[in-house]
Amino acid sequence: MLLTSTYLWIDDTLSIPLESITELTTTKRGGSIQFWDAIAGVDMEFHFTLPGFLRPRMGVVSDFLREIAQQRERQSGPLAPNRHTSAPSPLSQIDSCEECGSNGTDAYTFSTFRFIGIAPVAYSYQLTPQRFVLCREHARDRAHRVNVRNALFGYLGFPGFLAAPWYIVRNLRELRGHNLLTVDLILKSVLLTVILPLGCVAFLLFLFARWAATV
Ligand SMILES: [Zn+2]
């Protein structure tokens, strides 16, 4: 995470322009940034918690967030949830598939979920609902790709591994709402949500047992 005073880069694909921030909160251990994603047309929240050894520096983070709030207010008025008065997403005016350009499209919202750490000690998570305009074939394809990402990055901690399957199922429900859910996709998702994480846990237990046997 790289934070500057004009753009907040959460990771290499997500930055938050100052004027889109609607709320900043700090707690003893971390904070959250709420903002309006004008491209996807959704409200977003980013939460973070500092690990224990950095907590004595929490004052620096609070000062920094306060400074951002002041700059944001100077630039575009007081922090307030003006999100729903924002212009509609440009995506809503596009009616060809983002991937192949064909007609016969629909709008879909798929959620990316990432989690790392152990709550409430030290953790960070990101929930990104994104709106896509896609043809039927690419909607299935995109849902699967988002779910693979959720399976890889959503299970890395507690309670992430409990929440990740829910977001995977939610993406499938979005497909079902458009009558696009196939047996093939359901089977792949069972593999992602159940077998892959259980396999990882079994592998870690196996490594732990081998390590314990040598001690
Ligand atoms: Zn397409």
What is the number of helices? 4
Helix/sheet category: alpha+beta
Q: What is the average of the pLDDT values?
A: 81
| Shape-level CATH architecture of the domain at 1-91 | Roll
The residue ranges in which pLDDT falls below 50 over 5 or more consecutive positions are 82-93
CATH class of the domain at 1-91: Mainly Beta
Q: How far is the first residue's CA from the last residue's CA?
A: 38 Å
Name every ligand kind in the structure: zinc ion
- Strand neighbour order, sheet with most strands: 4-5-6-8-7-9
Sheet having the most strands:
6 strands, mixed
Share of helix among residues? Answer: 40-55%
Rg: 20 Å
The count of β-strands is 9
- Shape designation: flat
| Secondary-structure element order, N to C | EEEEEEHEEHEHH
CATH fold descriptor of the domain at 1-91? PH-domain like
Which percent band covers the strand fraction? 25-35%
Helix-strand layout with pairing:
Blueprint: E1 2-3, E2 7-11, E3 14-17, E4 21-26, E5 30-37, E6 42-49, H1 58-76, E7 106-118, E8 122-134, H2 136-153, E9 156-158, H3 160-176, H4 183-214
The protein binds zinc ion (ZN).
Give an overview of the whole structure:
This protein has 215 residues and is α+β, with helices and mostly antiparallel strands. The protein has a domain at 1-91: PH-domain like (Roll). It has four helices and nine strands. The protein has helices at 58-76, 136-153, 160-176, 183-214, and strands spanning 2-3, 7-11, 14-17, 21-26, 30-37, 42-49, 106-118, 122-134, 156-158. The strands form two sheets. A six-stranded mixed β-sheet has the order 4-5-6-8-7-9. Strands 1-2-3 form a three-stranded antiparallel β-sheet, with no helix packed on it. Strand 1 (2-3) and strand 2 (7-11) form a beta hairpin. Helix 2 runs antiparallel to helix 3 (160-176) and helix 3 (160-176) runs antiparallel to helix 4. The longest helix is centred in the last third of the chain and has 32 residues, at 183-214. The chain is flat and about 50 Å long. Residues 82-93 have low confidence and may be disordered.
